[in-house]
Queue: 2 jobs
Job 1
Amino acid sequence: MTWLLLCGCSFTQLLLSKYLLSAAVCDFERENCGWIETVNADEFDWVRSSSNALPPAFQKQAPPRDHTYNKSEGHFMFILKTKNRISQIARLRSPKFRQSGSNCTLSFWYYNYGESVGAAKLQLHVQGLKQPTVLWRTYYNEGNQWLKAVIQLGRLPYPFQFSLEKISLGFYEGISAIDDITFENCALPPPALSCEGPNRFWCRDTKACIDSLLVCDLVDDCGDGSDEDSCVCCLCISDPELQCNFENGLCNWEQDVEDDFDWIRIRGPTPTVNTGPLKDHTTGTARGHYLYLESSEPRQFLDKAVLLSPLFNPAGNGTCAFRFHYHMFGKQVYMLSVFQRTVSNAKGWLLWYKFGNQENRWIRQTLFIRSSKPFQV
Ligand SMILES: [Ca+2]
Ligand SMILES: [Ca+2]
Ligand SMILES: [Ca+2]
Ligand SMILES: [Ca+2]
């Protein structure tokens, strides 16, 4: 059985099943939790072991201590190379997961040490999608130590699994290992018996009770799509004209012509290594589109790019919620800001800004806008 349910189960239910628990946190002490090598018999494979359990001749290929207990008896998965060949692949495949909730995060501790240790990558394979999505990469020797990787998975409505891959071109030498793989907040929100209050929304099928700010924000927080699919007819919060996930262009948003450069719509990773997202927020895969700004060369400090919204008419009570997801990652990221204006040629006034590196993740932001006149952001 490699099908794991991360859906619709409360955390208590997760705890009841040993297998589900071992999938939520895997320390490799007793078992490999369904993570297995899939390119066998090439003498370059992921193997579960501890430093203690290895013959002295192989000990230099493994970390001296595991991450969980910081002991030589502690276990991990590492790459064992027993012969030199021109082309060898170590591919660690995870069990298959059914789906994940919108706040799902994956983290793990890894080792990538040695002058000829080379690169490694973690990929996401979603059922029905040909193209895998790269979630994480290490490019070179990162020292004789355990390091942590944190990956935002978000809502994935289809079955998926991961692979952690390393290719040896004959000269591999070093330590590659992984320990303490952890999934957090990956279950769907638990069902509720009732859901009352002005700022609550009761999901149609999963019966979860969620914050009404999560309704019509293009993220399936319920897990059944009901917080998103009735946005036109019933909830009166939003119509499609007021939403944009950039999957089909800029919608009714426009590039300003008086700025220094433009927002670029792409999918997958940005061109500069170690900056920007590897995937969009809507789909959580390399298939989805998003807008980005290249802040590396040839851009100069203080160059700006402006994206203009359509003109909005204020709601009856004069309040409007503007919600978006942003990603700011890299050394050269400067500032992202949102302005509101009521006259089309003015700069308007500052509503919100964020400064500098915010790590490799999408962040949800809500701004409340008050206006008695039609306005633009
Ligand atoms: Ca361990
Ligand atoms: Ca192999
Ligand atoms: Ca939502
Ligand atoms: Ca998108």
Job 2
Amino acid sequence: MADYEDWDAARGQDIVNGLAGLEGATLPILHALQAAFGCVPRDAVPMVADALNMSRAEVHGCITFYHDFRAEPAARHVLKLCRAEACQAAGADALHRQVLDELGVPWHGTTADGGITVEPVFCLGLCACGPSAMLDEAPMARVTAAGLRAALRARDDPRVAA
Ligand code: FES
């Protein structure tokens, strides 16, 4: 996982100012903030709104509309589970309920130990072999709860962790 900077208002303002002149600057700014800080910090929302002459609600709406943006930094590991149709047809819903229950988190939630954030994703291009998932940058096909457990355990084993 990437190392992120701690939130710094001056740095955030520099990022916003550096991209505010672009055509359609909202998404590039939000991506740049998330790349720097691991999320789009709440304190950055008024900066973006002021720079782009938008309301704070509009900026917030943009952050919540796009599933890739986060208001809080993700955990050390991010597990993305595909919720699109082909994976649903392959039993993804039941698998997701089991995985979320076992980890004790809702969608977008982070486990109590801060180790794993679970995010929904809508197609990973592995539709023919669902249910599909992505653990950090590693795609997984024909996912089972047992397979996921093993992959998550392996990630915490320093001998095999990336
Ligand atoms: S529908 Fe899940 S990978 Fe395409």
